[in-house]
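Sat 14:20. Reprocessing the chain from the morning session after the first attempt stalled halfway. Input below, unchanged.
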Amino acid sequence: MYSVEDLKTIVEDALFSGIHEPESYSSYLEEAQKYSISAGGKRLRPCILLSVCEMLGGNVADALPYACALEYIHTYSLIHDDLPAMDNDDFRRGKPSNHKAFGEDIAILAGDGLLTRAAELMSEDMIGSISAGKVYAFNAILSCAYDMVKGQIADIKAVDVPDDEYFNFVHRNKTAALFLAAFQAGAYLAEADDEVLTDMSKAGIIFGMAFQLYDDYLDIDTDKTLSYAQYLGKDKSKEMIAEYLARLSEIIAKYENNETLRALTLPEI
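Finished this time. Tokens:
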């Protein structure tokens, strides 16, 4: 069984090798893409995908293109999130945001290119050897990416009086969608049955909701715009996070060889 560090190393290597070789008149594209990919991070989404696949008896190498595609989508979303028209952040993980390093025009196109490369990478793999699991994984990743955009729209166009329904919509789509994709795609690539797919779908949503609420909780005293944690208050937020984690642990405990998945998810919060 692969450890968390093993999976992260595998993903890191594949992410860079998966970017197209630069061409003379468009080399800024690949340079800007690699700049944001090299910004670091836990690689949580692709590692979860690979660990779910392995836990359920699938092959990590076969799932790697889909894991990289998911991380490309996540990275594109961060590049676009930082733009002046979105969150207007000048720094990402301690270094200048992509648009500060390369300009807004290149940053937009770098993000566009990563989203496109994600679909291309998965389709290239299916051309080589297609299966129902790969097709379903492809669809799960791209449909969840669309849900992420819906969540971003709802976050940007915030309602005047936010409530539980609003915050749940934003968190379910903007954050939890890509975690759902990781759990679902990993299960599809392992050719899991419907019962297991239902469990993994629940786990993805639960983890994503807990992840975002905990992120809000950490900034509860400093957020300038109303977050869900501020709306709920500290005590209620802690209670909900604990409930999410208990439900997630219960699902994961049903499966053998779950150590890496537990290490990736439960200690994160």
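Strands lie at 91-92, 95-96.
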